[in-house]
Design goal:
The complex is a heterodimer of chains A (156) and B (142). Chain A is mostly helical. In chain A, 74% of the residues lie in helices and 3% in strands. Chain A has a two-stranded antiparallel ribbon. Chain B is 51% helix and 13% strand. Chain B has 7 helices and 5 strands; from the N terminus they run H-H-E-H-E-H-E-H-E-H-E-H. The longest helix of chain B has 23 residues. Classes of the chains: A mainly alpha (156), B alpha/beta (142).
Chain lengths: 156, 142
C-alpha cells in the first residue's frame, strides 16, 4: 500500500491539494458572508434578482462539496469534471462582463475587489489556470487509477 | 447509471441539501430572498435622515461624476484612486458617516471602494447607498 502511494506523481498530489484548498477556501468565505456574495453575483447582470439569490445560496455549498470530493478518490473524477464545468462558467461570466464593460466585483474569494478595464485579465488568467490544472489531473487520473488498482508486478 | 453520474448526482444532492439547511437555519441566507438593504447598505431615506457629518463618495467613472452627481459628493473610483483620495482624506474626520454609491444595485465599484476605505484607511462608518445613483435620480428626478 505504501509502495503504491509512493508511485503517485508528487505533482498530481500537490495539484489536487491546491485545487481542493482553493475550492474549500472560496466556499468558506462565501458561506461566511452570503450577502456579500449575492451582491457580487448581481454585478454580472446575468440573472434576475431571485435567481442571483439562489446562486448565492447554493454555489458556495457546491464548491465546498467539490473541494471535499477532489480529496476523495472515489468521487475525484466527477469532482474534476465539475471544476472544469464551473471554471468554464466563470470564464464565460467574466468574459461577458469584459465585453459589456461591466463594473463587477469578482466574488471569487470574498474580498470585493473592483474589476474593470484591463482588470479582467488576471481573473481570466486565474480561471484558465484552474481549468488547465483540472484538465491535467483528469488526463492523469485514469492512469493513476489503473496503476493503483492493478496488482503490483512484485505481487505486493 | 455510471459511477461518474452517481458521483455527480451525489455532489448536486449534497450541495442542495446543505444549501436548504443553511436557508432553514441561517437568517442571513433567508435575507437574500428579500429585497432588503444588506447589512452594510443604507437607504436614501435613512441617509437623508442622518444627523451629523456626512460625506458622499461617488464611485462611478470620473466622466459620469463630471456629468452629474449628488450635491457635495466627492469622486473616488478604483481607476483614479491616487489622485482622488487626497480630497476625501482632507474632508473626512472621525465621526463622519461616509456613504458610497455607484450606478445602481448591480454595480461593483461602491462595494470595492467602501471595503478599501474601511480596510486601508480605517474609516469606521462607511455605508453603501442601496440602489446607488439610480435610486437618487428616481427620488430627485432628472
Amino acid at each position: 500500500m505504501t509502495a503504491r502511494r509512493c508511485d503517485l506523481p508528487p505533482l498530481d498530489g500537490l495539484l489536487r491539494l491546491a485545487l481542493a484548498g482553493i475550492f474549500l477556501a472560496a466556499a468558506a468565505v462565501k458561506i461566511a458572508d452570503p450577502a456579500e456574495f449575492h451582491a457580487a453575483v448581481r454585478t454580472y447582470r446575468l440573472l434576475p434578482d431571485l435567481a442571483a439569490a439562489g446562486v448565492a445560496l447554493w454555489l458556495p455549498w457546491f464548491e465546498l462539496c467539490t473541494g471535499v470530493a477532489i480529496l476523495w478518490s472515489r468521487h475525484r473524477r466527477a469532482a474534476l469534471w465539475v471544476v472544469v464545468a464551473l471554471n468554464l462558467v466563470f470564464l464565460a461570466a467574466i468574459g461577458q462582463a469584459a465585453v459589456r464593460e461591466l463594473d463587477i466585483v469578482c466574488g471569487c474569494f470574498g474580498r470585493p475587489a473592483s474589476v474593470r478595464g484591463a482588470g479582467y485579465l488576471p481573473y481570466l488568467a486565474r480561471d484558465l489556470a484552474f481549468l488547465a490544472a483540472a484538465v491535467w489531473l483528469l488526463r492523469r487520473e485514469p492512469a493513476t487509477a489503473v496503476q493503483s488498482q492493478s496488482p503490483s508486478p512484485r505481487g505486493l | 447509471m455510471t459511477r461518474l453520474a452517481h458521483s455527480w448526482f451525489g455532489l448536486l444532492g449534497a450541495a442542495t441539501l446543505l444549501a436548504l439547511a443553511a436557508f432553514a437555519f441561517d437568517p442571513r441566507a433567508r435575507e437574500l430572498l428579500r429585497d432588503a438593504p444588506a447589512a452594510d447598505e443604507i437607504t436614501l431615506a435613512a441617509a437623508r435622515d442622518h444627523r451629523g457629518p456626512l460625506l458622499w463618495i461617488d464611485a462611478r467613472a470620473t466622466a459620469d461624476f463630471a456629468r452629474d452627481h449628488i450635491p457635495e459628493a466627492l469622486p473616488l473610483n478604483p481607476d483614479d484612486w491616487e489622485s482622488q483620495i487626497v480630497p476625501v482624506l482632507t474632508r473626512w474626520q472621525p465621526g463622519t458617516r461616509v456613504i458610497v454609491y455607484c450606478d445602481d444595485r448591480a454595480c461593483g465599484s461602491s462595494r470595492a471602494v467602501a471595503d478599501k476605505l474601511r480596510r486601508e484607511y480605517q474609516f469606521d462608518d462607511v455605508a453603501i447607498l442601496h440602489g446607488g445613483w439610480a435610486a437618487w435620480q428616481k427620488a430627485v428626478g432628472p
